[in-house]
Specification:
- The structure holds 2 protein chains of 2 kinds.
- By secondary structure, chain A is mainly alpha-helical.
- Chain A contains 11 helices and 2 strands; from the N terminus they run H-H-H-H-H-H-H-H-E-H-E-H-H.
- Chain A has one domain.
- The longest helix of chain A has 31 residues.
- Chain A is globular, with a radius of gyration of 19 Å.
- Chain B is α+β, with helices and mostly antiparallel strands.
- Chain B has 2 domains: 58 residues; 162 residues, no CATH class.
- The longest helix of chain B has 49 residues.
- The chains are: A mainly alpha, B alpha+beta.
- The interface between A and B is medium-sized, with 31 and 26 residues.
């Protein structure tokens, strides 16, 4: 069904090479609104992973029945229906988790990553590969948003994992900087998200450029083949 | 990617595409309504439980013994409470005697829009508690009006209102210190607490003036 190389390539694309936030620059709206701390970023990503995997597998299974000309309305229909069903099922059956993830699930509707992956991948690939693509695209988003949220709250409030008590009652946010830290409001407000995201994109491009230069200087050894070029 | 077979004419293909789209719409609408029907009872039950939990924060459940969600009054849009839509007022009683009124109010002049409040006013005219149920105040600055975001966990800002009444606090006390009142605030974020204080005073005045009417038993209200 799926071999190792294919899985590796899907994972590499999702986590690094085609990272939704750093390379495709998709889904900026929820990214700005939600990543005021690491916990929120992680929670939004978890909700997105679930929806992306489901919508990818649904579209991939139905792809032979969807006429090319009307694929976009059908995709939107499928994604919107799935988001709503996931929202309802969470609310009814996993209410504790819903209280945490709940506000993020409707936000996924504003996220074009889901539609982009359906159009670019699931419409052309079998269900299993598409499921993994959805999962790994979500994982790529997870680490990016967690890092971005973490940096924003550290700069803005001097804490890390603020709001963790909403997920795991009893746990407290970590105060990394001294209590007297005045806080940098800019980092918490949306412009801070843009500035830090820009820094992260620059950092990724720098890493990629360095890797490419090294690869040019000497033929890559076997283990470097996995590095992005 | 299925492409329509060549033998279709243009209008035939259009009809076929429309039919396929129609089938997709029917199937996924069916899926949605099935999910809605199936989850409805559970969602309603948890919404009621959640409402009670929120009410619990302003009014401890040990203080009353009636079924709160069954003893309600529907308020028309009330300008004094800043409400533009009908809301529900809950009436807590113990042994049939009035204990408290629990109702919603809106502060229209928060820093970034409306601040929704839940207020419990005891039968003696004192405040049982105030909670912010919804707001958009600046994270890390004005959002301490919500005790979950308040850094002072031992005595969150909003608990200052507990026990205040028109009898023990003249109108001028229901303001932030900067405006000559007795409500504390954090420097740099005065607008949010000022809006909440003003809305709470207005709401208390509104409810205090007609306590008996609001407590009138459901039979009389009908």
């Amino acid at each position: 069904m799926i071999d190792r190389n294919e899985l590796n390539s899907i994972a590499g694309n999702g986590i690094w090479k085609q990272n939704t936030s750093l390379v495709q620059i998709l889904g900026l709206c929820p990214l700005l609104a939600v990543t005021t701390n690491a916990v929120n970023g992680i929670m939004l990503s978890l909700a997105t992973i679930i929806v992306m995997a489901l919508s990818n597998v649904a579209v991939a299974s139905l792809r032979n029945f969807i006429p090319h000309e009307i694929r976009i309305p059908v995709f939107i229909l499928i994604v919107a229906a799935l988001v709503t069903v996931v929202d309802l099922l969470f609310n009814a059956n996993l209410h504790e988790l819903y209280l945490v993830l709940g506000i993020f699930i409707p936000l996924i509707v504003t996220n074009c990553i889901v539609l982009a992956r359906v159009e670019a991948f699931a419409a052309k690939n079998p269900p299993l590969q598409s499921t993994f693509d959805g999962l790994f695209m979500g994982v790529g988003m997870l680490w990016t948003l967690a890092l971005l949220g973490g940096m924003r709250e550290l700069l803005g409030n001097g804490t890390l994992f603020g709001g963790i008590d909403m997920v795991f009652p009893g746990l407290q946010p970590i105060q990394l900087l001294p209590e007297s830290y005045p806080g940098l409001l800019l980092a918490i407000l949306p412009p801070g998200a843009f500035i830090l995201l820009g820094c992260m994109i620059a950092w990724k491009n720098w890493l990629d450029a360095r890797a490419a230069q090294r690869a040019r200087l000497k033929p890559p050894p076997a283990e470097a083949a996995g590095l992005p070029v | 990617m299925s492409v329509a077979p060549r033998e279709f004419t243009a209008s035939g293909m259009a009809a076929r595409t429309a039919a396929i789209l129609f089938v997709f719409v029917i199937v996924f609408t069916g899926l949605l309504s099935a999910a809605h029907q199936w989850t409805k009872p559970a969602i309603e039950a948890s919404a009621a439980a959640e409402k009670l939990k929120l009410i619990d924060e302003v009014m401890p459940s040990a203080d009353y013994d009636n079924k709160l969600l069954g003893d309600t009054l529907t308020l028309p849009p009330t300008a004094e409470l800043g409400l533009e839509e009908p809301t529900t007022l809950y009436r807590a009683r113990k042994d049939g005697k009035p204990v408290a009124l629990i109702f919603e109010a809106v502060a229209p002049d928060g820093y970034t829009g409306k601040v929704n409040l839940l207020i419990a006013l005891r039968a003696d005219g004192s405040l049982g508690g105030v909670r912010v149920t919804r707001h958009k105040e600046t994270p890390g600055l004005g959002d301490y009006i919500d005790p979950r975001k308040d850094k002072n966990k031992a005595r969150p800002w909003i608990t200052q209102f507990n026990g205040m009444s028109l009898a023990n606090a003249p109108d001028k006390d229901w303001k932030v210190r900067k405006d000559g009142g007795r409500i504390d605030y954090y420097a740099g974020a005065t607008i949010s607490p000022r809006a909440v204080s003003r809305a709470v005073l207005k709401a208390v005045k509104w409810a205090d003036g007609q306590r008996d009417e609001l407590f009138a038993p459901p039979e009389a209200a009908r």
